[in-house]
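Example 3.2
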Amino acid sequence: MYNSDREHEKAYIEFFRNLDRRLFLEDDFKGMASIDSPLPIGYGQTISQPSLVLQMTLWLDLDKSHKVLEIGTGSGYQTAFLANFAREVYTIEYYEPLSRRAQNILGYLKFDNIHFKVGDGSTGWEEEGPYDRIMVTAAAGRIPDTLIEQLIPGGKILLPYGPPSHQTMIIITKLEDGSTTTEELIGVRFVEFVGEYGWGTKKTH
Protein backbone atom coordinates (compact mmCIF):
# COMPACT_ATOMS: atom_id res chain seq x y z
CA MET A 1 0.00 0.00 0.00
CA TYR A 2 2.83 2.37 0.87
CA ASN A 3 4.51 1.89 -2.52
CA SER A 4 1.17 2.30 -4.28
CA ASP A 5 0.57 5.59 -2.44
CA ARG A 6 4.04 6.82 -3.33
CA GLU A 7 3.51 6.03 -7.02
CA HIS A 8 0.14 7.76 -6.90
CA GLU A 9 1.70 10.89 -5.42
CA LYS A 10 4.59 10.75 -7.89
CA ALA A 11 2.13 10.88 -10.83
CA TYR A 12 0.43 13.97 -9.35
CA ILE A 13 3.75 15.75 -8.83
CA GLU A 14 4.91 14.94 -12.36
CA PHE A 15 1.71 16.40 -13.81
CA PHE A 16 2.07 19.44 -11.56
CA ARG A 17 5.60 20.08 -12.82
CA ASN A 18 4.65 19.67 -16.48
CA LEU A 19 1.47 21.78 -16.54
CA ASP A 20 2.31 25.34 -17.64
CA ARG A 21 0.50 27.68 -15.28
CA ARG A 22 1.14 30.59 -17.65
CA LEU A 23 -1.59 29.23 -19.92
CA PHE A 24 -4.17 29.99 -17.25
CA LEU A 25 -3.09 33.59 -16.60
CA GLU A 26 -3.68 36.79 -18.51
CA ASP A 27 -0.70 38.57 -20.07
CA ASP A 28 -0.08 40.94 -17.15
CA PHE A 29 0.47 38.03 -14.79
CA LYS A 30 2.15 35.38 -16.95
CA GLY A 31 5.56 36.47 -15.66
CA MET A 32 4.40 35.62 -12.12
CA ALA A 33 3.29 32.09 -12.95
CA SER A 34 6.11 30.42 -11.02
CA ILE A 35 5.32 32.28 -7.79
CA ASP A 36 3.57 30.06 -5.25
CA SER A 37 0.80 32.57 -4.63
CA PRO A 38 -2.80 33.18 -5.68
CA LEU A 39 -3.16 35.60 -8.59
CA PRO A 40 -6.16 37.54 -9.98
CA ILE A 41 -8.03 36.20 -13.00
CA GLY A 42 -10.77 38.85 -13.19
CA TYR A 43 -14.28 39.28 -11.75
CA GLY A 44 -12.89 39.31 -8.22
CA GLN A 45 -11.69 35.71 -8.59
CA THR A 46 -8.24 34.19 -8.22
CA ILE A 47 -6.19 31.23 -9.37
CA SER A 48 -4.96 29.44 -6.25
CA GLN A 49 -1.30 29.00 -5.42
CA PRO A 50 0.11 25.95 -7.26
CA SER A 51 1.15 24.06 -4.13
CA LEU A 52 -2.41 24.26 -2.75
CA VAL A 53 -3.94 23.10 -6.04
CA LEU A 54 -1.66 20.06 -5.95
CA GLN A 55 -2.46 19.36 -2.30
CA MET A 56 -6.21 19.72 -2.82
CA THR A 57 -6.05 17.22 -5.67
CA LEU A 58 -4.14 14.78 -3.48
CA TRP A 59 -6.66 15.16 -0.65
CA LEU A 60 -9.50 14.28 -3.00
CA ASP A 61 -7.84 10.88 -3.61
CA LEU A 62 -8.92 10.47 -7.22
CA ASP A 63 -8.79 7.49 -9.53
CA LYS A 64 -9.86 6.90 -13.12
CA SER A 65 -13.25 5.48 -12.10
CA HIS A 66 -14.32 8.72 -10.43
CA LYS A 67 -16.92 11.17 -11.63
CA VAL A 68 -16.12 14.60 -10.17
CA LEU A 69 -18.14 17.78 -9.70
CA GLU A 70 -16.14 21.00 -9.43
CA ILE A 71 -17.78 24.17 -8.12
CA GLY A 72 -15.84 27.15 -9.46
CA THR A 73 -14.08 26.52 -12.78
CA GLY A 74 -12.21 29.81 -12.53
CA SER A 75 -9.14 29.75 -14.78
CA GLY A 76 -9.44 26.00 -15.36
CA TYR A 77 -6.10 25.27 -13.65
CA GLN A 78 -7.59 23.07 -10.92
CA THR A 79 -9.97 21.56 -13.49
CA ALA A 80 -6.99 20.28 -15.46
CA PHE A 81 -5.73 18.36 -12.43
CA LEU A 82 -9.14 16.82 -11.82
CA ALA A 83 -9.59 15.85 -15.47
CA ASN A 84 -6.17 14.22 -15.65
CA PHE A 85 -6.79 11.92 -12.68
CA ALA A 86 -10.56 11.25 -12.86
CA ARG A 87 -12.84 9.66 -15.42
CA GLU A 88 -15.12 12.66 -15.93
CA VAL A 89 -15.34 16.20 -14.59
CA TYR A 90 -18.46 18.36 -14.43
CA THR A 91 -17.46 21.93 -13.66
CA ILE A 92 -19.64 24.97 -12.93
CA GLU A 93 -18.58 28.62 -13.13
CA TYR A 94 -20.72 31.59 -12.10
CA TYR A 95 -18.99 34.05 -14.48
CA GLU A 96 -19.53 33.21 -18.14
CA PRO A 97 -16.37 34.94 -19.49
CA LEU A 98 -14.21 32.88 -17.09
CA SER A 99 -15.94 29.68 -18.18
CA ARG A 100 -15.40 30.49 -21.87
CA ARG A 101 -11.73 31.24 -21.27
CA ALA A 102 -11.25 28.00 -19.33
CA GLN A 103 -13.00 26.01 -22.07
CA ASN A 104 -10.61 27.43 -24.65
CA ILE A 105 -7.52 26.63 -22.58
CA LEU A 106 -8.61 23.12 -21.62
CA GLY A 107 -9.64 22.44 -25.21
CA TYR A 108 -6.19 23.52 -26.34
CA LEU A 109 -4.75 21.00 -23.85
CA LYS A 110 -6.90 18.28 -25.49
CA PHE A 111 -9.01 17.33 -22.49
CA ASP A 112 -12.15 15.59 -23.72
CA ASN A 113 -13.65 14.47 -20.39
CA ILE A 114 -14.76 17.86 -19.06
CA HIS A 115 -18.36 19.15 -19.11
CA PHE A 116 -18.94 22.87 -18.52
CA LYS A 117 -21.86 24.79 -17.10
CA VAL A 118 -22.40 28.47 -16.31
CA GLY A 119 -24.56 29.15 -13.27
CA ASP A 120 -24.98 29.10 -9.51
CA GLY A 121 -22.82 26.26 -8.23
CA SER A 122 -24.56 26.15 -4.85
CA THR A 123 -27.28 23.99 -6.42
CA GLY A 124 -24.74 21.60 -7.92
CA TRP A 125 -25.50 19.77 -11.16
CA GLU A 126 -28.17 17.36 -10.02
CA GLU A 127 -29.20 15.99 -13.40
CA GLU A 128 -25.68 14.67 -14.04
CA GLY A 129 -25.13 13.26 -10.53
CA PRO A 130 -24.43 11.47 -8.36
CA TYR A 131 -20.69 12.08 -8.01
CA ASP A 132 -17.82 10.21 -6.41
CA ARG A 133 -16.03 13.42 -5.51
CA ILE A 134 -16.94 17.11 -5.26
CA MET A 135 -14.43 19.96 -5.02
CA VAL A 136 -15.50 23.48 -4.05
CA THR A 137 -12.93 26.16 -4.90
CA ALA A 138 -14.58 29.02 -2.98
CA ALA A 139 -15.30 29.54 0.71
CA ALA A 140 -18.64 28.45 2.14
CA GLY A 141 -20.22 30.07 5.17
CA ARG A 142 -22.20 26.92 5.89
CA ILE A 143 -22.11 23.31 4.77
CA PRO A 144 -23.73 22.92 1.32
CA ASP A 145 -26.39 20.27 1.91
CA THR A 146 -27.48 20.24 -1.74
CA LEU A 147 -23.98 19.17 -2.78
CA ILE A 148 -23.73 16.44 -0.16
CA GLU A 149 -27.03 15.05 -1.47
CA GLN A 150 -25.36 14.64 -4.89
CA LEU A 151 -22.53 12.48 -3.49
CA ILE A 152 -22.60 8.71 -3.66
CA PRO A 153 -22.24 6.79 -0.36
CA GLY A 154 -18.51 6.69 0.26
CA GLY A 155 -18.05 9.92 -1.70
CA LYS A 156 -16.07 12.93 -0.51
CA ILE A 157 -16.46 16.67 -0.78
CA LEU A 158 -13.52 19.03 -0.24
CA LEU A 159 -14.20 22.69 0.52
CA PRO A 160 -12.95 25.76 2.38
CA TYR A 161 -15.36 26.47 5.24
CA GLY A 162 -15.62 29.44 7.58
CA PRO A 163 -16.02 33.24 7.84
CA PRO A 164 -14.56 35.84 5.44
CA SER A 165 -11.40 36.47 7.47
CA HIS A 166 -10.18 32.86 7.45
CA GLN A 167 -11.42 29.38 6.65
CA THR A 168 -10.49 25.78 7.29
CA MET A 169 -10.15 23.29 4.46
CA ILE A 170 -12.37 20.37 5.34
CA ILE A 171 -13.15 17.04 3.75
CA ILE A 172 -16.60 15.56 4.29
CA THR A 173 -17.17 11.85 3.72
CA LYS A 174 -20.68 10.53 3.11
CA LEU A 175 -21.35 7.23 4.84
CA GLU A 176 -23.54 4.37 3.63
CA ASP A 177 -26.45 5.48 5.84
CA GLY A 178 -26.34 9.01 4.45
CA SER A 179 -24.68 10.56 7.50
CA THR A 180 -21.33 12.34 7.18
CA THR A 181 -17.99 12.68 8.91
CA THR A 182 -15.81 15.79 8.70
CA GLU A 183 -12.04 16.13 8.90
CA GLU A 184 -10.30 19.49 9.29
CA LEU A 185 -7.11 19.86 7.23
CA ILE A 186 -5.41 23.29 7.14
CA GLY A 187 -6.23 26.97 7.47
CA VAL A 188 -6.85 28.71 4.12
CA ARG A 189 -8.31 31.88 2.68
CA PHE A 190 -10.52 31.80 -0.43
CA VAL A 191 -12.92 34.09 -2.26
CA GLU A 192 -16.61 33.75 -1.43
CA PHE A 193 -18.76 30.86 -2.61
CA VAL A 194 -21.29 32.85 -4.66
CA GLY A 195 -24.77 31.53 -3.98
CA GLU A 196 -26.83 30.12 -1.16
CA TYR A 197 -23.88 28.87 0.89
CA GLY A 198 -21.62 31.93 0.85
CA TRP A 199 -21.34 34.59 3.55
CA GLY A 200 -24.39 36.47 2.30
CA THR A 201 -22.39 39.41 0.97
CA LYS A 202 -22.89 38.84 -2.77
CA LYS A 203 -26.01 38.64 -4.89
CA THR A 204 -26.88 35.54 -6.85
CA HIS A 205 -28.96 35.15 -10.00
